[in-house]
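PROTOCOL LOG
Step 1. Enter all chains and additional molecules of the complex.
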Amino acid sequence: MVRILLFAQARELVSQQAIDFPCSDSFSVRSLRGRLSETYPELKTLLATAAVAVNEAYATESTMIRPGDTVAIIPPVSGG
Amino acid sequence: MVGLTKKAIDPGELLKLVQRSHCGGCVLFVGTVRDLTGDQVTVSLEYEAYGTMAEKMMSEIEKDVRSKWRVGDVAMIHRLGRLEIGDVAVAIAVSTPHRADAFVACQYAIDQLKKLVPIWKREHAPDGKAEWVHRQ
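Step 2. Run joint prediction.
Step 3. Record the structure below.
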């Protein structure tokens, strides 16, 4: 299982602070976007512009996510 | 030093923190909440962060600044929670031996913060509507 943290509009769209995503094997960030969009179609548009962090570091599309990792959906940031 | 806070930021304190005897220049950037963005009026806003990662990224920006310029010290602080117009949202202070580097380094730090740190703002409009700001 992988815990997916949601922030800002992502959290509002799904009305959850986090999603516990079942998985038994590693999978890529690219694959995560696809799977999340299928399971949560309301997230699809936001996912297209959001970054993904794995264990508190920005990931690329080919970064592998392992069971037990903490993932976060990072919509375009607006701090500062 | 870097951090997030829910309390009001005192920019003067940041200036004191970075002063060093060998540094002749110190630049302080203060970002405040403004009431107008284009045509959009804001009456207040909230900041939310992915706290642990935000602090990590701010530390990395500090390291990055130190690797690019000979700084005396760097201090960066961002406020979270609800802020009113005019409140200080973020402050960055950089001290360097000579002033040119302090200006460039401080600008670099705030530019990087705005690009990389997982903090988001939600603006409240006069009609009561509130929107997360997610510009690309």
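Step 4. Note key features.
The radius of gyration of chain B is 16 Å.
DSSP finds three helices and ten strands in chain B.
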